[in-house]
Amino acid sequence: MSAFTPHQGTYFAYWLTQTGKLQNQISRTMAAARVDMNPHQIEAACFALKSPLEKGVLLADEVGLGKTIEASLVMAQKWAEHKKRILLVVPASLRKQWEQELQDKFELPSIIIDSKVAGRLKKEGLSNPFDQIDKIVICSYEYVASQKDWVQLIDWNLVVFDEAHKLRNIYQNSSGKRAKAVVKATKGAESRVLLSATPIQNNLMELYGLSRVIDEHYFGDAKSFRNLYVNRQKDKNTLDDLKQRIQPLCHRTLRRQVQQEGGINFTNRYSITQDFTPTDEEWSLYEKLSTYLQTPDIQAIDPKARHLVSIGLRKILASSTFAVADTLKGMITRLQDKQLLNEESLDDLEEADDWIDADFGETDSGDGRVEKLKQEIEELSECCRLASEITHNAKGDALLVVLQKAMDMTEQLGGQRKAVVFTESCRTQQYLNTLLENNGFKGRTVLLNGANNDARSQSVYREWFEKHQGSARISGSKVADMKAALVDRFKSDQADILIATEAGGEGINLQFCSLLINYDLPWNPQKVEQRIGRVHRYGQKNDVVIANFVNRRNPADRRVFELLHEKLKLFEGVFGASDEVLGAIADNIDIERRIYEIYQHCRTDAAIEEAFNRLQDEMKEVLEVREEAARQTLFNNFDRDVVYNLKTRRDESQDFLKHYERVLLDLASAELQGARIERNHFFYQGNRYDLTWPRAEENDSEFFRLQATEHFLAWELVHRAKKRMPDAAHLIFHYDRLSDGQYAALQPYIGQSGALQAINITFEYNRGRSRENRIVVLANTDSGEKLHPDHAEHLLSIPAALAAGVPEIDTLSFGSWVDSVVAAQRAATEQQLDQYLEQESDKLERWAQDKRQALMQSVEELDEQIRTFKRESRQLASTAEKIRAKKELRQLERKRDDALSEYHEAKKVIEREEDRLLDEVSEKLELSCTVDTLFTIRWTLQR
After folding, report:
1. 886: part of which helix (H) or strand (E)?
2. Quick check: do 54-253 and 403-444+496-579 share a fold?
3. Per-residue pLDDT for 115 more than 70?
4. CA–CA separation, 499 vs 424, rounded Å?
5. Residue 532, beta-bridge partner list
6. Which of 64, 787, 810, 859 lies 20 to 30 Å (CA to CA) from residue 622?
7. Least confident stretch, 466-475, 724-733, 806-815
8. Helical spans, DSSP H, in 81-155
């Protein structure tokens, strides 16, 4: 028998889904996600959702604080509000990672739209592939720009831009074409969220550019912004003014603030370097294949793919001779089948997406070329023979050495003897697996790559699937579930080493492991940092050890390591290289391409040294020209009380979540006959249900929560209870049956009776797009004493039973009481809307002022020219010169008068536009209110 009545079940369902305080909504959304809750992330999400009138925000938290989670929270909240037209624009390389993050942590369905998917959808009858009503659309910047005419046909509720600094040059006519196309495609969106840890890289105009992406009415034009702020940025008052203006637009939290709050303890990273010297056979293969790649007129490689094939072969060459041998075998077969080499030839690397095929007919012209091609096939065959004859690699031997040293160091630092080994080559992955299996790790390795079609991985997956079948651990995505199964195996005591490729390592969190080994070291520092971020991220409890290899026979390899280790400081310290540093370099120097060119063109050690010295000098110059002072002033000190605010937010969120979980459990108790309710979980029909995702994973149970996609048990109970319209009844509340805590304020009412009414107040504004509903419980005693609304709510949380018969209840006593409560709620809502109006009015007023100042500047410049001309004309000697000067002066004065006339006309246009925008804002804030009575009961409180 349930501890609660149907009336209470209805109240619990409405309480759980009410939309009152924004921070409670976000806390509830986060509670339904498979992610640790941190107050700075709730703070950021609240900032992004705080006003229905704002067109968007910039979330600029420092690297490592989880901007992905912040944006996902915003998307999940929009989804919960049934605003499901969401577009996520990201760098192409991050599309899959975002898709998996949304699915794994928030169970938000999404679809990556590219040319192939769009073609398939059109064949299936969907004329506009972006018209997805039940999935978040994920696209690259390039694809959105190229398909802007289709994208802008959708009325997007929300557009999220990851790495949004890619749009900061939109104000420039020359370099902002793609950014303009992307922004134009999303112009009609209700709201935008921009994510970037480096919003300003080189000058303050980039901030102006990002403001234009969000709201074209935030600042005036580029000229007025430059005059107001850029030209006067050393003036403290000017920067204070700018800081004040962008506070509603930008939100930034620093790692040191989060660390001070105590929510996240960032651990250190330490570096181990293992030297190795290739054997003569390995070095001979390297020199021979490297010389071939440096040939200026290679015939075997498709000219359109020359760069990508060459750089791919160099990566494979640096990885292992086993990878080289098998790759060259496939290339030679391809050439013998009369197909040129392109990116498809590099099936060993899991990086590229779209390949262009070419055959000999397109480029083959003349016997000379055919003969040269034949010669190249012989060269590649010789390289293949050399590689095939090599039976072991010096770097593989070095791995066995460094692995023991690194594991010992990790164990001393408190970590487990587990290691993640990253390689860029699938074939090297197989070689390393065999090497480790034969050297003390038999049966203790796990492979993670883009396919995982090997027998062991498939076996691990089947075992995992059978174990978790029917539970919330099964996501329905084979790729996501395969990764989950393999990571679980690595986490267990059955495995010690995870060997991962780049594709395999995307989107996984390995905080339980604190040793990472870069068997192959990428040339791109962002990729290196992303790898390290798999283990060194918030949630990591131990210091992290990072092991790298240095080829002492190859000066270019040595300099690449020096660049990443000593110059960018990726491998040591609390945070490694910051987004500030990586972003500044990436925006100005294509390091990967530059390193490739050094390998490709430098034929002597001296030339290599000189080229790397030049590259380091350029990097140093780029970092020195950053306007650190402006950035720090604008973004790093918005609020001196950030740490205090974060602590307050954590306390408030935890208090709310405790209450929220308690009500969820009470809902289960009220609605599920036969459920066995425990303190923080329950059992029903043979299944266990936990209220938090860590407990659900630990117990392999169902995760009982109201998640974004409404298809689990909790939502079924909510919908059932809200459909119910309970009749008047007499409820006997049993105070002594409270299992969790006491309501001291209710003790004086034990033995008394009275009437109680639960009402649902709903406010709508923003043309019906924004809705808030609040549950209010009113109760009085038979003697006429009114209970405080909080105490009335507590009454409904006490176990109760229905008394026999239908009671008579005086509902008239609630009439004027309800009116006064609704009036008070309306006044509070209107006060909040007034704040939104005030903020919008201030913004538009400043925008109009900027525009007027820019127009007046032309008049003032002409006035200054006139004054200067008058001074100079007085010094003229001859009458003829003075007459000519007077005529020129009259022309200048007429030009000034015309400019002044234009100013007055344009001023009227600006004022009319300001009035129109204010009218639009006022219309959005028109408030409507409805009140529904959920039920009325007679109550008695017994001990």
Report:
1. helix 879-924
2. yes
3. yes
4. 11
5. none
6. 64
7. 466-475
8. 95-106, 115-123, 141-146, 148-151
% of the chain surpassing 70 pLDDT: 91
Amino acid sitting at position 751: G
Q: Tens digits of per-residue pLDDT, 372-425? A: 888 888 999 999 999 999 999 999 999 999 999 999 999 999 999 999 999 999
Distance CA 733, CA 781 (A): 14
Closest CA to 507 of 72, 165, 48, 61: 72
Task: List phi, psi (to 5°) of 802.
Answer: -80, 130
Does the pLDDT of residue 52 top 70, yes or no?
yes
- Of 931, 932, 928, the C-alpha closest to 768 is 928
**Roughly how many angstroms between the first and final C-alpha of the chain, as a whole number?**
19
CA dihedral of 459, 462, 463, 469, whole degrees rounded to 10 = 170
368 contacts: CB under 8 Å, gap ≥ 6? none
pLDDT of residue 362: 41
For the stretch 55-75, what's the b/e string if a residue is b when 16 or more beta carbons lie within 10 angstroms of its beta carbon? bbbbbbbbbbbbbbbbbbbbb
d(CA 372, CA 358): 18
CA distance 42 to 59: 12
- Look up residue 810 and give its two tokens: 């005086």
| pLDDT tens figures, 750-769 | 999 999 999 999 999 888 78
CATH architecture of 54-253: 3-Layer(aba) Sandwich (3.40)
Q: If you write DSSP's letter for every residue of 756-793 in order, what string do you get?
A: EEEEEEEEEETTTTEEEEEEEEEEEETT-PBPPHHHHH
pLDDT at 357 over 50: no
Cβ neighbors of 265 (< 8 A, separation 6 or more) are 259, 541
**What are the backbone dihedrals phi and psi of residue 938, each rounded to the nearest 5 degrees, phi first?**
-100, 135
Residue 853, classed as helix, strand or coil, is helix
User: Other CB atoms closer than 10 Å to residue 675's CB: what's the count?
Assistant: 17
Cα gap 862→856, rounded to integer Å = 10
User: What CATH number has the domain spanning 403-444+496-579?
Assistant: 3.40.50.300
Q: Residues in the chain, how many?
A: 943
**Domain residue extents for the chain:** 54-253, 279-389, 403-444+496-579, 639-721, 725-943
